[in-house]
UniProtKB/TrEMBL annotation:
Protein name as catalogued: NAD-dependent epimerase
A single MF term (Gene Ontology): aldehyde dehydrogenase (NAD+) activity
Organism encoding this protein: Myxococcus fulvus
A Pfam family hit: Epimerase
Transmembrane segment boundaries: none
NAD-dependent epimerase/dehydratase domain segment(s): 5-219
Superkingdom of the organism of origin: Bacteria
InterPro entries on file: Epimerase_deHydtase, NAD(P)-bd_dom_sf, NAD(P)-dependent_oxidoreduct
Length: 328
């Protein structure tokens, strides 16, 4: 029987891929989109559009009505203040849960969290789900609070959480800057590295989300969604991207203090102009952390989930898509 699914944040990178996968299965997909938001990535995918905003509780009732599952992807990754993150990522989750409870149908909530809620890992030990939240910036703090809020509704709603690390694939803008550097002949190398990164293909994340929407053992649990193989470094990701593009960029070595200074300057430009530049202090702190790694063992043990797509292939697909669609 087709699943009736609502996706918040459906117009974003992950939302586009999730909408496509659910529609391909024959599920009935509703996309919650803010008025005026870019939904070009959803063109040609069968779905019902509902205008609404997770920060406006009254707009959520029509969207959640009659749903079997709510995939909560909506959120902000950049903001000028802590309140910017908390209002959308944390309080938006609370308003969505309230609307789901009020619907009376007990749809399952699949919340997309983030490895950022845990904070950086040790270079020698990946995070596991039992580790405490230790976010060290506002985005991670707001994602940790979103999880706490979601699970506080566990007596009224079936709740499960997915915590992806850095996601790769076509439509992704978070990693686009590193591919663009390669086209300018630059390979960025951060002094003091390498700094291991767990990464994952967007289609593996989608597979995990759908599994969490259906598997009985997912309820009440949070899972990391890690790609296969060993972690990569920022430098190795750039090498893979350059190879896919047929480029041989020169290495530019950047010290931590210079990256931090450039990021502070970029934040200043963003505040004055309103333009969101690729570099920010948040990005710099993430890049300079000792490691961002996590283990996918729990998802394999409880759900039988095994990622099917290598990160190297995800980098290649991303590079080819960026070039084909004029993003580079």
């Amino acid at each position: 029987m087709p699943m009736r699914a609502l996706i918040t944040g459906a117009g974003g990178f992950l939302g586009i891929w999730l909408t496509r996968a659910l529609a391909a299965r024959g599920d009935k997909v509703t996309c919650l989109l803010r008025r005026g938001s870019d939904a070009s990535g959803l063109e040609g995918i069968p779905h019902t559009r509902v205008e609404g905003d997770v920060t406006q509780g009254a707009s959520l009732a029509p969207a959640v009505a009659g749903q079997d599952v709510v995939f909560h992807l909506a959120g902000v990754r950049r903001g000028a203040t802590r309140e910017d993150f908390m209002r959308v990522n944390a309080e938006g989750t609370r308003l969505l849960c309230e609307a789901m409870v009020a619907s009376g149908s007990r749809p399952r909530l699949v919340l997309v969290g983030s490895l950022a809620a845990m904070g950086p890992s040790s270079p020698t030990r990946p995070h596991v789900e039992e580790d405490p939240f230790q976010p060290y910036e506002w985005y991670g703090e707001s994602k940790a609070e979103a999880e706490r809020i979601a699970f506080s509704y566990g007596d009224r709603l079936p709740v499960t959480v997915s915590r992806p690390p850095r996601i790769l694939g076509p439509w992704d803008r978070e990693n686009l800057a590193f591919f663009r550097l390669a086209t300018k002949g630059i390979r960025l190398e951060l002094a003091g590295g390498p700094r291991p990164l767990t990464m994952v293909d967007v289609e593996d994340v989608v597979d995990a989300l759908i599994l969490q929407a259906e598997h009985p053992r997912a309820v009440g649990e949070a899972f990391f969604c890690a790609g296969p193989g060993d972690p990569l470094s920022l430098e190795s990701v750039q090498d893979l991207g350059a190879r896919a593009l047929g480029l041989s960029p020169r290495t530019v070595r950047v010290s931590p203090w210079l990256l931090t200074a450039l990021a502070s300057a970029a934040d200043g430009v963003s505040r004055v102009t309103g333009r969101k530049l690729p570099l920010s202090r948040k990005m710099a702190r993430q890049l300079l952390a000792p490691a961002w790694t996590c283990s996918g063992a729990k998802a394999e043990r409880l759900l039988g989930f095994r990622p099917q797509r290598g990160v190297e292939d995800a980098v290649r697909r991303s590079a080819e898509w960026y070039r084909e669609h004029g993003w580079l």
